[in-house]
Amino acid sequence: MSDTSPTIVRELIKKDLQIMKVPSLCYWLGGIGAILLAVFFGDAAGTIAFILFVSVLFGAGVHAAMQTVTEERREQNLPFIMSLPVTISDYTVAKMSANLMLVGTIWLTLSAASYVIFIGDVMPKGTIPFLTIILVAIFLAYVIILATTVVFQGLAPAIIAVVAANLGTQAYIWWISEFHDVRSTVNGMEAVWNNTYLTVIGLQVAAVCALIAFTFYSQSKKTEFL
Amino acid sequence: MNTQMILSQTDPRPIYVQIMDEISRRVALGDWQPGMRLPSIRELAADLKVSVITVKRAYLELERSGVIVTQQGKGSFVNQEVSVDDVRMQELARYLDNAARVAAAMGMSHDELVDALADYTNR
Amino acid sequence: MLAIKCSNVRKTYPHFALQDVNLNLAEGTVMGFVGPNGAGKSTTLRVIMGLVHQDAGSVQVLGHSMPAAQRAAKWDIGFVSEDMRLYSHRTLGFHLEFLEQIFPKWDKPYAAELLRRFDLNPEQKLKGLSHGQRVKAALLTAFARKPRLLVFDEPTTGLDPVARKLVVDEMMRVMEDESRSILFSSHNTLDVEQISDSITFINQGEIVASQDKESFLDAWRRVRLVVDDTFTLPNCNSIVKTQRAGHQMVLTVSDYNEGFAAHLTQAGASVTDVERLTLEEIFIASVEASQAGQHAIQGEAA
Fold it and tell me: Whole domain around residue B102: which residue ranges?
């Protein structure tokens, strides 16, 4: 993106962050709440805490992508943005940066915080690699949704992406959990980073990068932008 | 700049003619003295909220009929040599021209038209 | 110096095509862009803004080639389209601050003056505004950028007469500066007729006329004739419409000159009246004529 316009891209990012400030904080607090729930009432509310935690991570991503991309188009704010001295690639850089920064920050801090449940012997440490896979998979699901909203713009593709990413991630996690290398280590007392874990995580990260690259590529091929 | 010129939407004549008439009338009444500087074309256009080209056309036609003179780079002025009588006559001429045309289309003769006009002046 | 120069611009869609659009906007002038719904006005304006890329042809805006150099060009363009909305959950003030950060030429005192003149409250969220207020707000965000070129897609649609006058007055105030130019599309032929220096007429994706307003309006006449029973109308391309009732005949003519009346007189008719047409009448006559498959407007870019 050699020809971007730094000042305006910065202003566009700032604007999106400002619009998403309050909802993002709510999601983040929800995530912290879920972690605290697991830490203090892990025995009784472990499942609820986990579902809440995953929903918060997933919800923050869906909300950000839908609000800053889909809603902006539906509300016909796009002509206003495109009347500014920006190109499609500036717009794409701004949208992707704002989203990845915002959701990335929420995802990273909550993910890091979630490892506190392994302090002491409440949870078997063998689950750490599997949890890492789940966390990266949720981020991948978010990037799929983001790429779809940016590339296809419309509400229908966005909803399809949300539903597909949600169901797909669940099926995918279940599938991974059936792997022999996973089943044999997940309940152990020590975290075992075998090749299966490393390969799956590596592939997920590669998929995230590929999707981001694909988004920029297909945006640059557009000849119609409203 | 506010010239207090009012254009009419119900006047069937084109806007440039209305502007010409308004300026001619001001000259004929002596409100705009010979040698007075006219507003620039852009100023008058912005004041009247009409296009520049319309005012330009009015000025060109006024120049052609000798009411104003335009000096390159200096602007337009009421012609020093303008004959107020001529300007008045020009205004009247428009109505007379119309009357003559209508009369001709109705098949009236010259004398009939003159008689008809006399009736009006005697009223 | 041209503010906009479109040469042979083409854009094809499954059910619509812009065909060889040529359009020149001279610097310091106002161009009114008229045509029926679906004629291609918005598409043309989007091509000019670089938001839709043409399939063929070149577009130069303020000396920049579009869409490639749209960023450089858009620093100096204020664009408002009918389908443009500001952020409904934000205040007008939020937008003004946002734009102030972006545009170095942003004129804050002028923005404040426009808020007053347009009777807008910067504290108010956009969703609480009426349609007219929203349109005025969007236009304000374009005016206060102090751009060299304003491109408005139907700026006065849906406005009450008072608001419309405010907008038109503001556009003419811009024109006091002879380095600034305006291109606007409108269905309000009165506005177009009043403030345009040139008129571009588009129908079914084709530019049917693009010339200065005075010559454009001058070229059209309604000619009233009284004829006898044996009169036959001479064949003439510039007659767009013919109506006859008894001994009276009314012709709508697209390429009128003094010789035309003489021609009719020679043919045995007596011309009782030659009237000018309003832009609205010309608009309707030429669209009807083209729908009837007749030969419509002769005037090409002068």
Answer: 85-121
Q: Is the pLDDT of residue C299 over 60?
A: no
Among all residues of chain B, which has the CA nearest to that of C273? B102
- The answer on B90 and B78 residing in a single domain is no
Q: What is the number of structural domains in chain C?
A: 2
Name the token pair of C221: 């006449």
Strands (DSSP E) contained in C154-246 are: 181-185, 198-203, 206-212, 221-226, 239-245
Instruction: Indicate if C19 and C78 belong to the same structural domain.
Output: yes
Q: Quick one: B27 and B40 in the same domain?
A: yes
| Structural domain contains residue A37 | yes
Residue contact C102–A84, C-beta within 8 A: yes
- Rounded CA-CA distance C132/C129 in Å is 8
Q: Which of C31, C172, C217 to mutate to test binding with chain B, by most B CBs within 10 Å of its CB?
A: C172
Residues C154-182 pLDDT 10s: 999 989 999 999 999 999 999 999 999 99
> Is the minimum CB–CB distance between B50 and chain C shorter than 8 Å?
yes
Chain C residues whose CB is inside 8 A of the A90 CB are 71
User: pTM (2 decimals)?
Assistant: 0.88
Reported as a pLDDT band with limits 50, 70 and 90, residue A85 is very high
Let me know if chains A and B touch, i.e. at least 3 Cβ pairs under 8 angstroms: no
Q: What is the CA radius of gyration of chain A?
A: 19
Average pLDDT on C48-52 reads 95
Q: What angle do CA C151, C278, C149 make, to 5 degrees?
A: 15
CATH code of the domain containing C57: 3.40.50.300
Q: Are C91 and C122 in contact (CB under 8 A)?
A: yes
CB-based contact (8 Å) between C51 and chain A?
yes
State which residues form the domain around C259. 221-276
The residue segments making up the domain with residue A17 are 6-220
CB contact under 8 A, C85 and A90: no
Is residue C216 assigned to a domain?
Answer: no
Q: Looking at the complex, does the CB of residue C90 fall below 8 Å from at least one CB of chain A? A: yes
CB atoms C51 and A90 under 8 Å = no
Q: How far is C204 from C151, CA to CA, in rounded Å?
A: 21
C290 found inside a domain: no
Q: How many CB atoms lie within 10 A of CB A67?
A: 17
